[in-house]
Amino acid sequence: xxxxxxxxxxxxxxxxxxxxxxxxxxxxxxxxxxxxxxxxxxxxxxxxxxxxxxxxxxxxxxxxxxxxxxxxxxxxxxxxxxxxxxxxxxxxxxxxxxxxxxxxxxxxxxxxxxxxxxxxxxxxxxxxxxxxxxxxxxxxxxxxxxxxxxxxxxxxxxxxxxxxxxxxxxxxxxxxxxxxxxxxxxxxxxxxxxxxxxxxxxxxxxxxxxxxxxxxxxxxxxxxxxxxxxxxxxxxxxxxxxxxxxxxxxxxxxxxxxxxxxxxxxxxxxxxxxxxxxxxxxxxxxxxxxxxxxxxxxxxxxxxxxxxxxxxxxxxxxxxxxxxxxxxxxxxxxxxxxxxxxxxxxxxxxxxxxxxxxxxxxxxxxxxxxxxxxxxxxxxxxxxxxxxxxxxxxxxxxxxxxxxxxxxxxxxxxxxxxxxxxxxxxxxxxxxxxxxxxxxxxxxxxxxxxxxxxxxx
Length: 457
Hints:
By secondary structure, the chain is mostly helical. The protein has helices at about 5-20, 25-35, 40-55, 60-70, 75-90, 95-105, 110-125, 130-140, 145-160, 165-175, 180-195, 200-210, 215-230, 235-245, 250-265, 270-280, 285-300, 305-315, 320-335, 340-350, 355-370, 375-380, 390-400, 405-415, 425-435, 440-455. The longest helix has 18 residues, at about 440-455. The chain is elongated, with a radius of gyration of 31 Å. The mean pLDDT is about 90.
């Protein structure tokens, strides 16, 4: 005796298979159910529409509509919401609007989720005013907005550079009884950090800490990262310790960021402790982490540890990159081992990197600072690629040595190639030529600087 399969049980099976991307098996379940006399309903087809839109493509999802019509089953708002979301996720915004129009023409009234996706599309198209209009004219008067509605609005405003508007809306909604979620706070904190408003971000973080919600690792990592980017290392380190005291765990990126900040502020022992913690917690070091460690040991002059690290990098199956080698060259120069640095630069040339410009710029600058300016000039002459940093560094150091004529010659080459040298450096060269009695050269250089400025404008 064959038991009849219920539609509800069939839908559960289909949904479970769709979640794990087993669409062929889901289709097979439907076929077997039909053979047993159980017909699919709108829930079955909606599940398929959502799965095909997510895991295959929009056209595959839309093709389910034809099957629904053949089965005399009418699509509903959930059907179209899945299609509109599928189009939005693939940035097919014109299809989103077409599907929205198609839904309304069929007499299916949009719900709050339809409008949420519509707002998201307008934000993606850099049309925040249209998104605001949807909220103002469609959602607020007729529907009950959900937390996703407001989070979509906050996120869209922040991503489009309207962080102040997002914050004002947040304050207004809170006064009218809106209860923010953790994701709401995270959206605002991220938006404020990205717009450089770290103080406001810290205030919102404090509000979050005083609410019934608990900040997560993402919240703290966002604030910490942007503090470091803004050069506010002490503030970033303060957030790090706050996060650590609350027992949050970090990923490799967070540890590397904090270690780098410790190293930049001269707190090398604390930087080293970060790496010890990483190893204790079983976090694998990548080349970025190793580079920060190499730089830290180079600053300390701990060369044995540097070479041990290089062996460790090799044993871990990683490859040193341009930054690793540039750090070594810089460290060797700092330690007074100019010959070792030059040898390593030549070795780096054999490794086939796309460009060793940063390493060469570092070498030129360090040679100049160490008093080997003629060696620096010889390196400069061998360089196939130069940039504004190359010229600025060399011109500045030639002026420091009071070699103003040579500085003006290098500056002229730079200007001919359409590159810039910082204005203060240009002024120092002109002033130096005047003080050396080279008035004609000073006038020529000033004329060339003016001409270069006109050509660039």
